[in-house]
Amino acid sequence: MYTAPRLYEIAFDLNRKREVDFLEHCFKRFAKRPVRRVVDIACGTGPHLLRLAARGYRMTGLDLSPENIEFLRERTRAAGFDADLVVGDMTNFQLGARVDAAICMQDSQGHLLTNEHLLDHLRSVAQALRRGGVYVFDRYMASSWTNPARRWSWSRRRGRLIVRATFSALNDVDPVAQVFRERMELEAVENGTRRVYRQTHLSRMVFPQELKSLVALAGGFEFVQWFFGFKSHQVLERSKHPLLMVVVLRKK
Fold this sequence. Notes:
Blueprint: H1 5-11, H2 17-30, E1 37-41, H3 47-54, E2 58-63, H4 66-79, E3 84-87, E4 99-104, H5 115-128, E5 129-140, E6 150-158, E7 161-174, E8 179-190, E9 193-204, H6 208-218, E10 221-228, E11 244-251
Parallel strand pairs: 1-2, 1-4, 2-3, 4-5
Antiparallel strand pairs: 5-11, 6-7, 7-8, 8-9, 10-11
Helix pairs in contact: 5-6
């Protein structure tokens, strides 16, 4: 999938306004410094990076896939934005300049399958942030142990190209190892030619109180707040059956 960034970008060209509005709300409400520079960690093809750049933020993008970074470089140039784009590992990276805020969207932290990797990640992010800056990220949660799996299907058209996407998460949950399987399929149809890309990988969940403990152990951050989804009025503790935990940390 990540070697076909054009198809991935088309499939996930969704309405991100609510998510980006929420990120801006967090920057303004919780940061103790003006937020001008933002790093998008595991930025992929840039659905959040480009929208934040359009709102005037100086963006840095970090992704493990060279194909994603090169594709995003072309997208930012076409849009007239100047972004710093870096191929790098989210558990061990350094930026050319510190930033005021960091984001990590679409449960990308789930690729970190051990607490050790998550701690390395948190420490790298803390080093990249200026004091008072914020880190906002989302994580899947199992809202039910009897039938936790979730599946979504949709299609997008770009000219003569049609991309049909199917994505499922929280499959085969192992509550002891805290891992589950994600599956994704992209079917591309263009000028009578059909191509199918499939991907499956393990992802790991963390439980809310465990996450707080890991943040404290990593050092460098203070816990600010968490929410159910991108809803600034929906605090996690007061939510029923939350599926997506959105967390705000602040650099000490």
